[in-house]
Every structure is written in C-alpha cells, then in structure tokens.
C-alpha cells in the first residue's frame, strides 16, 4: 500500500523491497517455482554443452522468464483463491484451473523453443 508521505524515489525503493520479498517467498516456498528453476538450471547447462549462439541464449532466457512469470502469477491467484474461499467451490476450481493454464501455455511454448534450439544439435551427434 502506498505511503502518502513517501516521495517518488522513496516510494519506488519501498516497492522494490516488497517485490524482492515476493521473489524470495516464491523461490523459497513454491515447489512449482523450485521445479522450474531446476529445469532452467538444466537448460543453462545444456546451453553451455551445445555452445548455443547469443540469440539462442536470449530466446532461451526469455522462455525461462515466461514460465517463471506465469508460475508466479498462478501462485498468486491460488493464494487469493485460498484466502477468499478456502472451502470447495466449483467457481474457485475453475479460477484455479484457468490460472494453471498460464504456466502450461508457457511451458508448451518453451518446449517448442527448446526443440527448435536443441533437436538439430542433438541430431548432429548421430
Ligand atoms: N477450493 C477449491 N474448490 C474447488 N476446486 C479446487 C479448490 N482448490 C483446488 N481445487 C482444484 O484442484 C486443483 C489444484 O489446486 P491446488 O490449489 O492444489 O493447486 P496445485 O496445482 O496443486 O498447485 P500447487 O502445487 O502450487 O499447490 C485446481 O486446479 C482445482 O481444479
């Protein structure tokens, strides 16, 4: 929440502090984020192993970012849903299913990107 006494710079610094707090919560307590970070780590190792180009590095990091951002948004929606309605409700189920669709979209697109980058390089090994 904005503190009316804060000037522009102080307000931005305060927001940044909360944003990093959110990042820390995601990284330390969300299993889906931990799993995606592990996959990102493997993809980075693969990038070095196959000596991918700077453009491929850029696209790979964009794909990693896309998945992490979608996972984070999904986690936030889940938190809100559990807070406003912890009991079973068909509508809450639908909201959570739709939110879960976001990282699934991102993961499928990332899989296509990974195939475009690595399949030709792996094929060269055989
Ligand atoms: N309160 C609820 N009412 C109805 N359906 C729910 C409810 N909570 C969860 N669900 C159903 O269960 C699915 C999984 O929900 P859950 O909150 O366990 O998320 P998850 O995908 O297991 O995420 P995470 O592993 O990050 O906790 C939802 O997509 C939804 O279909």
From TrEMBL:
Family: Belongs to the bacterial diacylglycerol kinase family.
A Gene Ontology BP annotation from the UniProt entry: phospholipid biosynthetic process
Cofactor note: Mn(2+), Zn(2+), Cd(2+) and Co(2+) support activity to lesser extents.
Source species of the chain: Polaribacter dokdonensis DSW-5
Positions of the catalytic residues: 71
UniProt-annotated binding residues for a divalent metal cation: 30, 78
Entry keywords, A to Z: ATP-binding, Cell membrane, Kinase, Lipid biosynthesis, Lipid metabolism, Magnesium, Membrane, Metal-binding, Nucleotide-binding, Phospholipid biosynthesis, Phospholipid metabolism, Transferase, Transmembrane, Transmembrane helix
Residue numbers binding substrate: 10, 71
One cellular component term from this protein's GO annotations in UniProt: plasma membrane
Protein localization: Cell membrane
The keyword Nucleotide-binding is assigned to this record: yes
Signal peptide: none
Record-annotated membrane-spanning stretches: 35-53, 98-119
Entry-linked InterPro entries: DAGK, DAGK_sf, UDPK
Protein name: Diacylglycerol kinase
Cofactor(s) demanded: Mg(2+)
Pfam families per the UniProt record, alphabetical: DAGK_prokar
Keyword Transferase annotated: yes
GO MF annotations in UniProt: ATP binding; kinase activity; metal ion binding
Membrane topology: Multi-pass membrane protein
Residue positions binding ATP: 10, 30, 78, 87-89, 96-97
């Amino acid at each position: 929440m904005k503190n009316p006494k804060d000037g522009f710079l102080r307000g931005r610094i305060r927001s940044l502090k909360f944003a990093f707090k959110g990042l820390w919560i995601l990284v330390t307590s969300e299993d889906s984020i931990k799993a995606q970070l592990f996959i990102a780590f493997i993809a980075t190792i693969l990038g070095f192993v196959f000596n991918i180009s700077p453009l491929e590095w850029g696209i790979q990091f964009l794909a990693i970012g896309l998945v992490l951002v979608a996972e984070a948004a999904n986690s936030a929606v889940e938190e809100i849903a559990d807070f406003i309605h912890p009991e079973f409700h068909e509508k809450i189920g639908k909201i959570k299913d739709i939110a879960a669709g976001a990282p699934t979209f991102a993961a499928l697109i990332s899989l296509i990107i990974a195939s475009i980058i690595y399949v030709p390089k792996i094929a060269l090994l055989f």
